[in-house]
């Protein structure tokens, strides 16, 4: 709860300000008598105020107070009767007496527990109970009779807090009707200022003054012959001109869109007629070619079908050849692994591994025309399966060199 109040105060603090206006005495009159004619009233301007009121009474009693501020009165009652005061005063004295008795009993029990002897016989052990001893001593030491002193009649101070809101400047006074004429009272006035509200009020007053001044100046100008409606007519004329320009622009835009739509429709119609005429001429020529020249209208379709069939057959043959080559390669690798295992089983030693990336690829040389042409050499393994000690011999077979000149000689004489 403490943190909550801190947050609320932090949020409300910047725009609220408190000012202590002053303290004034209250007008006290015994019951049944009119209040005094002279009252310490204080004039308060319009605003919000917190009033702390208090009364010093010589004995317990009820008092009725009245707070009159700006023609508005607030009433309240403070205090209690002497019988009510005696009830709760006796309860307070009883609680204090019980507290004192418990303190005496506690101290006595500690002392008894520290110094009390223990008596033992052949059959039993006798000991002193410190708590029981403390209660006995406390009951004997503390007077059980409870009675307030003769002069304890409930003299005290009664207080209360009141908040008022005034709309006009008016005096504010506090009066009270009591049982004793010796009762005294006072009230302290604290003004609660809402700075934001005051700033808004100042701005509103300034705005009102500006509007009044403007209206007065306008009336002066009209009295001197000025036209009050001239500015409004200029504004209306400017608005009319702008609306006319917008209407003209809208009409031009609508006409342009209509012309564009007409051009698009005309072009679409021309394209449709051209296509229709083209299909008509095409049909005429197809009929003439088939009827007069005995042309075959399905020849092109058959050629396309034949081409598709040939392409499919070529793809099938290619796939078959690839499958055969893949199968041959797999057989060669399997045979190689088998032969390698046999050689290792007979004690053969594996050759050192050659780094293919570091070794240059063997090349063939073509010296035709006095030029050296580097040609990659293909290494084709040949498997010779003659006896159990079959080996694989690499044979270097260079591919045919690229053609660097004409392949057919011209024997004609120049």
Q: Terminal Cα separation, in Å?
A: 123 Å
Radius of gyration, in angstroms, nearest whole number: 63 Å
Mean pLDDT: 77
User: Percent range for helical residues?
Assistant: 40-55%
Number of helices: 6
Portion of residues in beta strands equals 15-25%
Low-pLDDT parts are 1-12, 363-399, 404-414
Estimated structural class: alpha+beta
Based on Cα principal axes, name the global outline.
Answer: flat
Main sheet record: 5 strands, mixed
Q: How do the helices and strands follow one another from N- to C-terminus?
A: HEEEEEEHEEHEEEHHHEEEE
Number of strands: 15
Topology of helices and strands:
Blueprint: H1 2-12, E1 16-25, E2 27-30, E3 42-44, E4 47-57, E5 62-69, E6 72-79, H2 82-115, E7 119-120, E8 125-126, H3 130-141, E9 156-166, E10 170-178, E11 184-194, H4 195-223, H5 230-291, H6 299-345, E12 363-364, E13 375-376, E14 378-384, E15 391-397
Helix pairs in contact: 2-3
